[in-house]
Amino acid sequence: MALTLFSRTRTATEPEHTPQPRPETGETWQPEGVHVTQRFLGLAGAVVLVYTADAGANGTYYAVACLGCSYRTRSKTDRDHYIASEQAGGEIANAHAAQCRALPRDLPARPDDDTARELVLRRLNWERRSDYDATVYLTAFHLDRLALQRSTQWIEEELQRLADEEPELLTAKRRRYGTGTEFTIVRSPQR
Description:
Residues 1-31 are annotated as: Disordered. There is one protein chain. This protein folds into two domains: 35-98, no CATH class; 113-185, Arc Repressor Mutant, subunit A, CATH 1.10.10. Helices cover 25% and strands 17% of the residues. The chain has four helices and seven strands, in the order E-E-E-E-H-H-E-H-H-E-E. It has helices at residues 86-99, 113-127, 145-148, 152-165, and strands spanning 35-41, 47-52, 62-66, 72-73, 134-136, 170-174, 181-185. The strands form two sheets. A four-stranded antiparallel β-sheet has the order 1-2-3-4, covered by helices on one side. A three-stranded antiparallel β-sheet has the order 5-7-6, with helices on one face. Strand 3 (62-66) and strand 4 form a beta hairpin.
């Protein structure tokens, strides 16, 4: 049996982010809030995904995650902040798949809202600094998108709820330029 490529060029009539069937099961898994653009098969069968979410105020960025092991990244190198192209994401995913010996695992189940809220709060606390207030960009949630399985709108609504309920952690104000809301994580109190 011949293996097929896990990523293919789309035709002019296909949308930019068309979910492709998983090669090992034939299923198409497209979690809410995530656009899977490429899949690679690891040495022992685990699938490595290149994915993105809705374009934010600063453009479209990609992340890579292995569904067999715990590998996840949103940057190409330690100096880069984000993966800016699908091609770069594919190179990272292919390199990981070429050496990953993880077996496939079940697809992550969609968490309930309370668990998803905990994931958002955990990310905000991880992004929080002690010496300055930090702007929250939706790209900060790229690594969590496969676990969250929520839309960009849901994440923004959750950030607004947190800003209303916990202003000592998060503030919200209208963007100075463009539309929408800008969220800021308030610096940690000095101990």
